[in-house]
Write a structure and sequence with these properties.
The structure holds two protein chains of two kinds.
Chain A lengths: L5 E10 L2 E11 L4 E5 L6 H9 L6 E6 L2 E2 L10 E4 L11 H5 L1 H5 L4 H14 L15 H14 L4 E5 L7 H18 L2 E6 L2 H7 L2 E6 L2 E6 L1 H6 L4 H6 L4 E8 L2 E4 L2 E6 L6 E7 L4 E4 L7 E8 L3 E7 L5 E7 L11 E6 L3 E6 L1
Helix pairs in contact in A: 4-5
Chain B lengths: L1 H4 L5 H25 L11 H8 L1 H35 L3 H8 L2 H4 L2 H11 L2 H4 L4 H23 L3 H10 L4 H12 L1 H17 L2 H5 L5 H9 L3 H25 L10
Helix pairs in contact in B: 2-15, 3-15, 4-9, 4-12, 9-12, 10-11, 14-15
The chains are: A alpha+beta, B mainly alpha.
Chain lengths: 346, 259
């Protein structure tokens, strides 16, 4: 398969007076799976639709490899696409659906059937070829849709929230399979989702979007641990916002002095941003500064929700074994297990 | 489950269907009974049917009318399917306007329509019988438009179209291999309505001085009323047999019962 890289350069797209994409620059490397993540209305779907040619950008270019495809019509772009809504052709069998793209490319019938069969096997539905759409479950339909998108060996695979309509269990299984297939076929893939867990789980890199611009694009690990902006920090994963005072580039949280990084100001009221796993809850202490509201057992770890005297809610993620004596209503001490924090304006 | 699906015998429904049945079948059965009477010899016989078949004009006019009806169906589908598809996809504000326009043929008297519509056609069409399909198309528009409109509203048109395009289908093939098969029921209904309306159209045809099967039947009726009724019966039965044959011959594709 001859996969290529995908590049968007200075793409702008407006709908009326809403700017869906604002001078958008973005690249997906050869064989890479990149997710665009963001709240609804952030422009991620528009970006994908511009790549597919289903939406025309107002300005800017789209490149596949070295080819400028900015004004190529959708049906000549050679991109496989899986949609959020079930999109199989109801008058065709699963096998005919999968070979549809090949039929449009005038591939002869024997080759088509063989290829469709191979792909149905790849997505785990070897015996479902003769079935019609209404004889398949939601998960199976999306598998067939995936096979259809890959059958004509597209240069780019576009996934537009393909798992959103499915049950939780099917969603997790299918996303793993998408990733496995994507790696084995080496297809350059753009994956749009609003589900951060999904994005983090299967992507090489994740781009976080807000208001038509890319806030940060990096590996899931970097996004989580070194968020570039406050938006990324609070959108990706759970983030506690604890009120504090900034003096001399430092904040004090639960009696501990922490270095404020990437602060736009040097003094004043701020919120310190701290991940739940960086907060420790101690039951036996003389310095009781919070109260436990709930403790949710999650297996190996437990989520403890506490409240500070000023009403601020703080979440802590601890090992279950270390948090067994924390009960709702008991007074506890909170500690910060980090020395650097991001801050936002109070 | 099977018990719940069984249609219950509902009294109002039975009454309605009975009245409707009388309304539809009594005139047909009466006409048939009338057409096999042989007043000269008394009793019943096939005299008038045999007479009609031997009549040279019978075949001539029925073929002409069938041709015109076929062309009307073709024009209707070629114009309406892409247009209504476009109206649905573009979410154009024009849609409401065109919805309204499509109803106009119902309220404009055929007399007014005949003159106006004819002079608006190009001259080379005006002077041939081929102007009729274009005018029949307009007469059938309210029904054909609604039937296709409902069909297209019932499928996820936008997703299917985009799926087809991204798989490499150009606009023509998208309509041809994806949209039309997906609304097959609506298309068949449109074909049936348009075909039947064209085959039976009388007023407009007479006003424009053309001869088709219905006008010929009225002409025959002037001096052979029983013959005319026999011809009418055949014009009812022959298309029915043809359509039934076609329906049975076409491969059945299970595209119903979508989730």
């Amino acid at each position: 398969m001859s996969s290529k890289n995908l590049k968007l350069a200075n793409v702008t797209k407006r709908f009326g007076n809403v700017t869906a994409l604002d001078n958008f620059d973005f690249e997906v490397g050869v064989g890479e799976l990149v997710a665009l993540l963001g709240p609804s209305g952030c422009g991620k779907t528009t970006a994908l639709r511009v790549v597919a040619g289903l939406e025309n950008q107002d300005s800017g270019q789209v490149y596949v490899g070295d080819n400028d495809i900015s004004s190529t019509p959708a049906h000549k772009r050679n991109m496989g696409m899986v949609f959020q809504a079930y999109s199989l052709f109801p008058n065709l069998t699963a096998e005919e659906n999968v070979s549809f793209g090949l039929q449009m490319r005038k591939v002869n019938k024997d080759v088509r059937i063989k290829k469709a069969q191979t792909l149905l096997e790849l997505v785990g539905l070897p015996t479902h070829g003769k079935r019609f759409t209404h004889q398949l479950s939601g998960g199976q339909q999306q598998r067939v849709a995936l096979a259809r998108a890959l059958a004509f060996e597209p240069e780019i695979l576009l996934l537009d929230e393909p798992l959103s309509a499915l049950d939780a269990q099917v969603r997790v299984n299918l996303r793993e399979e998408i990733r496995r297939l994507q790696i084995s076929l080496g297809t350059t893939t753009l994956f749009v989702t609003h589900d951060q867990e999904e994005a983090m789980a299967i992507s090489d890199r994740v781009g976080v979007m807000n208001n038509g611009v890319l806030e940060q694009i990096d590996t899931p690990d970097v996004l989580y641990n070194q968020p570039a902006t406050n938006f990324v920090a609070s959108f990706v994963g759970v983030m506690n916002k604890i009120p504090s005072e900034l003096t001399d580039g430092h904040v004090e949280v639960f009696g501990k002095r922490l270095k404020a990084i990437k602060s736009e100001q040097s003094a004043g009221k701020v919120h310190a941003l701290i991940r739940p796993e960086s907060i420790k809850v101690k039951a036996n202490s003389t310095n009781l500064n919070a109260k436990v509201l709930t403790r949710s057992f999650l297996g190996a770890s437990s989520n403890i929700v506490c409240q500070l005297p000023d009403g601020t809610i703080v979440q802590s993620l601890m090992t279950s074994s270390g948090s067994g004596d924390l009960h709702p209503g008991s007074s506890v001490e909170l500690e910060v297990a980090t020395s650097e924090v991001l801050v936002t304006n109070g | 489950m099977a018990e719940a699906l069984k249609p219950k015998l509902q009294i109002p429904l039975v009454i309605t269907l009975t009245i409707l049945g009388f309304f539809v079948f009594v005139p047909m059965i009466s006409a048939f009974e009338y057409s096999i009477r042989t007043p000269l010899e008394g009793g019943y016989g096939w005299t008038h049917y045999l007479w009609a078949i031997k009549e040279e004009d019978f075949l001539h006019y029925i073929i002409r009318s069938a041709w015109l009806a076929f062309l009307t169906v073709l024009i209707t589908l070629l114009i309406l399917v892409p247009t209504i598809t476009w109206l649905h996809l573009s979410q154009s504000p024009l849609r409401v306007f065109i919805d309204g326009i499509s109803l106009l043929p119902l309220v404009i008297p055929v007399v007014a329509f005949a003159v106006g519509a004819q002079i608006s056609l190009p001259e080379f069409v005006q002077s041939t019988v081929l102007e009729l399909p274009f005018l029949y198309f307009i007469l059938a528009l309210p029904y054909a438009y609604r039937s296709l409109d409902i069909g297209l509203s019932a499928i996820p048109l936008k997703t299917l179209t985009e799926a087809a395009r991204s798989a490499g289908a150009n606009p023509f093939r998208t309509i041809n291999s994806v949209i039309v098969p997906a609304i097959r029921g609506s298309v068949m209904a449109t074909v049936a309505i348009t075909f039947a309306l064209s085959l039976g159209e009388y007023t407009l045809t007479v006003l424009l001085h053309w001869d088709t099967f219905p006008t010929w039947v009225t002409y025959v009726a002037q001096d052979n009323i029983l013959g005319a009724i026999a011809i009418s019966m055949m014009s009812l039965i022959i298309p029915f047999l043809i359509l039934t044959g076609l329906t049975l011959a076409l491969p059945e594709r299970s595209n119903q019962g979508r989730k």
